[in-house]
Specification:
By secondary structure, this protein is α+β, with helices and mostly antiparallel strands. The chain has two domains: about 5-65, Orthogonal Bundle (Arc Repressor Mutant, subunit A); about 75-155, Glutaredoxin (3-Layer(aba) Sandwich). The chain has six helices and five strands; from the N terminus they run H-H-H-H-E-H-E-E-E-E-H. The chain has a five-stranded mixed sheet, covered by helices on one side. Helix 1 (about 5-15) packs antiparallel against helix 2 (about 25-35), helix 2 (about 25-35) packs across helix 3 and helix 3 packs across helix 4. The longest helix is centred in the middle third of the chain and has 19 residues, at about 85-105. It is elongated and about 50 Å long. The mean pLDDT is about 95. It catalyses: a quinone + NADH + 5 H(+)(in) = a quinol + NAD(+) + 4 H(+)(out). Belongs to the complex I 24 kDa subunit family. InterPro entries: NuoE-like (IPR002023), NuoE_dom (IPR042128), NuoE_N (IPR041921), Thioredoxin-like_sf (IPR036249). This is NADH-quinone oxidoreductase subunit NuoE.
């Protein structure tokens, strides 16, 4: 299921820890798998568990605890809007509603074309930059006005 390149990345993570603490690389391993596959299916979590040598339920516990892991399929572009109180009071709720209207979906939904999934997120550590959004868990977007949201969506569509 996972490519050889993904296993090489996981091996680099495993090399950072003593042999009896391989489970310490589980978060990084899940992240590499998710980048490659887009989400973490039960089969993928089992594959990682087998490779690392830890119980599958322990891998699943990690994947379901942290909201950066997708345990069901998501769109090509997952946009997470910070709706924690400071962002909400500084335009986060408005930005989220603007995106819902623009994309025609609600939080935790994916557009019919599979391009966008919209999620609510907790504090992203950039309260002074509100409203804040995170694209595919890797790209932070700050001060998101309606015009900046329009530009972001158009950029991602390309």
């Amino acid at each position: 299921m996972l490519s050889q390149q993904c296993y090489q990345k996981i091996d680099r993570e495993l090399a950072k820890y003593p042999a009896d603490q391989r489970q310490s690389a589980v978060m990084a391993s899940l992240a590499h798998a998710q980048v490659e596959l887009g989400w973490l299916s039960p089969e993928t979590m089992q594959e990682i568990a087998d490779y690392i040598g830890m119980p599958a339920i322990a891998v699943q516990e990690v994947a379901t605890f942290y909201n950066m892991f997708n345990i069901k399929p998501v769109g090509k572009h997952k946009i997470t809007v910070c709706t924690n109180l400071p962002c909400a009071l500084s335009g986060g709720e408005r930005a989220g509603q603007f995106l819902k209207d623009k994309l025609g979906i609600d939080y935790r939904d994916t557009t019919e074309d599979g391009q966008f999934t919209l999620m609510e997120g907790e504090c992203m550590g950039a309260c002074g930059d509100a409203p804040v959004m995170l694209v595919n868990n890797h790209r932070m977007c700050s001060f998101m006005s309606d015009a900046k949201i329009d530009a972001l969506v158009e950029e991602l569509k390309k």
